[in-house]
Amino acid sequence: MVRVAILSDTHGVLDPRVADVVADCDLAVHGGDIGCAGVLAALTPRGGRVAAVRGNNDVPHKWPAADQHLLDALTLEVTEDLPGGRLVVVHGHRTPARDRHAKLRRRYPDARAIVYGHSHRLVADRDAEPWVLNPGAAGRERTFGGPSCMVLSAGHGEWSLDVHRFPLAGAARGRRPAR
């Protein structure tokens, strides 16, 4: 069984409660709008691996000058082969909001689950395969009820999903990495 932390839309701030969830996972995937290299450095899954995609706000003028060289390493799509299937991660800004889930399912029919961010809205659409998952915002901006993330447990026979949403009161204490 592989435990995958799924988060997105940190915009330069990683809520420490989300960081605690990530620490108990084998892999962390970030669905874009990262905000700075410090966010990626603060993601410390026990397996040590972090995969991230570039969001529409991951652009030079929105990142600290010292971190901008890392933007070129961020791709628009990441694929992770996990026990029991493939996980695809995109930011979602290149797929129109209208019928987004159907469009993503058509674009990635061989995936077992598709992760996207961009909307900051927590959604776990498991009504059809592939699953379409949006972990919401893991920072302070537009959390729509509090910072959130997901943990996917992927085994050869079964996948399961745990959703974590934290109260807004703690969001104000989010960790802003050094710039």
Describe this structure in words.
With 179 residues, the chain is α/β, with parallel strands linked by helices. The chain has one domain: Metallo-dependent phosphatases (Purple Acid Phosphatase, chain A, domain 2). It has helices at 16-23, 37-42, 100-107, 168-171, and strands at 2-7, 27-30, 49-52, 77-82, 85-90, 113-115, 122-125, 131-135, 148-154, 159-165. The strands form 2 sheets. It has a 5-stranded mixed β-sheet with strand order 3-2-1-9-10, covered by helices on one side. It has a 5-stranded mixed β-sheet with strand order 4-5-6-8-7, covered by helices on one side. Strand 2 (27-30), helix 2 and strand 3 form a beta-alpha-beta unit. The longest helix has 8 residues, at 16-23. It is globular, with a radius of gyration of 15 Å. Residues 170-174 have low confidence and may be disordered.
The outline comes out as: globular
Domains (count)? 1
Q: Helix count?
A: 4
Distance from N terminus to C terminus (CA atoms, Å) equals 36 Å
Task: Provide mean pLDDT, rounded.
Answer: 92
Return the structural class.
alpha/beta
What share of the residues does DSSP label as strand, in percent? 25-35%
